[in-house]
Model the fold of this input.
Amino acid sequence: MRQLNILVLHGPNLNLLGLREPQIYGSLTLDDINTLLSEEGKMLHSELFCFQSNHEGALVDTIHQALGKYDGILINAGAYTHTSVAIRDALSGVKIPTVEVHLSNIYQRESFRHHSYIAPVAIGQISGFGAESYRLGLLALVHYLRKLEAK
Ligand code: DQA
Done:
C-alpha cells in the first residue's frame, strides 16, 4: 500500500490547547494531539506533517507549498474558519482534498461560529468530538484518498 502524505494545519490559538478554556477544548495539548495523530497515521500507512500558526498568511503559504507534496489536508483553522476568504481560496486553488475539523461543536456555540468559509471547499467537516474530531477527520480523509486511488 502506497504511503500517503498528509498535511495537518492548526490555526490561531490552538498552540494554547491544554491551557485555553479546557471546558470547551479539553485538556490535551497540541503536542498530545499531534502525537496521537501521527500514531494513528502510521496505522493508516500515512506520514503526517503538523504545522500551527497564528498568522493567516503563514497558513496560506503552507497550503500553497503543499502542492505536489501532500495527498490531503486536515485543517482546524480555528477562528479563521469564520473569517478567512484567503484560506478558503488557497484550499480551492490547490485542490488538495481537505477535511475540516473542530474540537467543539461550532453549531452549539455563538452564532458567529456557525458559518465556515472552509466548509464549501472541504470534502466534509467533523465538529464536536474534542481531540477525537482530529482522529475521525484523519480516518475520513484517508478513506477518501484510498477510494480515489482505487479508481
Ligand atoms: C475551533 C472553533 C473556533 O470557533 C474557535 O475560534 C477555535 C477552535 C474548534 O476547534 O472548536 O479556535 O476551531
Strands lie at 4-10, 46-52, 72-76, 98-102, 124-127. The domain at 4-150 is CATH 3.40.50.9100 (Rossmann fold). The first helix runs from residue 22 to 25. The first strand starts at residue 4 and ends at 10.
